[in-house]
Amino acid sequence: FNRMGGIVQDITERKLAEAKLHESLREKEALIKEVHHRVKNNLQVISSLLRLESGRSKDQVTKDVLLDMKGRIMSMALLHETIYRSGILAEVDMAAYLRNVGNQAIRSNEGIRGGVKLNMEFADVRLDIDQAIPCGLIVNELTSNCFKHAFTDRPQGVPADLFEQSRNSLGLQLVQDLVRQLEGKLEIVPGDGAHFEITFKAKLHRSAAS
């Protein structure tokens, strides 16, 4: 006669442990999202205070400094908003984030140069937050700098030694510091207009579309 054997194992405890682990992960993700949301709100409050203080100041230099600080803080606030809205905590959708940074720069400087449109093209690139923050600040600085210095009677374009000539410019010094933070390389391409190229190694993989 034939014999049939089998093993009966109670996996109830394992299932319960897995369910408890998944629930704990969901709670932690929800908490991290809430932290990003609150940080964004706090940064927006600081930005609003700087805007109000700028409006009260009668000194143009002081007004400009406060508005520059406001733009930098808003670029960081937008990063936390992007993470919160996407729900993806491990990496940042750079297309969505930098598009928001560019649009914010337009809104902040529309009184300087009205009617300017910003054309943005992005590949599908995602970075971790440590690299996303410097990228957002760089885009904010260079975009704001264009509003301040473009569309003048001077010849268009920038000299190749721009950064050597602008040692007193906090914004351009900040750009250089941020590029070093990314362990990247910054090049100014000669020619009409202003063409900046920044290359660095991404910590997260790029999709096939990049």
Helices and strands, in N-to-C order? HHEHEHHHEE
Q: What's the multimeric state?
A: single chain
Fraction in helix: 55-70%
Radius of gyration: 24 Å
Mean pLDDT: 79
* Range of strand content: 5-15%
Distance between the termini: 65 Å
**What is the spatial order of strands in the main beta sheet?**
1-2
The count of strands amounts to 4
Largest sheet: 2 strands, antiparallel
Structure annotation, total helices: 6
Structural class: mainly alpha
From the spread of the alpha carbons, the general shape counts as globular
List the SSEs and their pairings.
Blueprint: H1 12-56, H2 60-86, E1 92-93, H3 94-109, E2 126-127, H4 129-149, H5 162-165, H6 170-181, E3 185-189, E4 195-199
Antiparallel strand pairs: 1-2, 3-4
Keywords:
210 residues; two-stranded antiparallel sheet; mainly alpha; globular; two-stranded antiparallel ribbon
Quick synopsis:
With 210 residues, this protein is mainly α.
Describe the fold and architecture.
With 210 residues, the protein is mainly alpha-helical. 60% of the residues lie in helices and 7% in strands. It has 6 helices and 4 strands, in the order H-H-E-H-E-H-H-H-E-E. It has helices at residues 12-56, 60-86, 94-109, 129-149, 162-165, 170-181; strands at residues 92-93, 126-127, 185-189, 195-199. The strands form 2 sheets. The protein has a two-stranded antiparallel sheet. A hairpin with a 5-residue loop joins strand 3 and strand 4. Helix 4 (129-149) packs antiparallel against helix 6 (170-181). The protein starts with 11 loop residues before the first helix and ends in an 11-residue tail after the last strand. The relative contact order is 0.09.
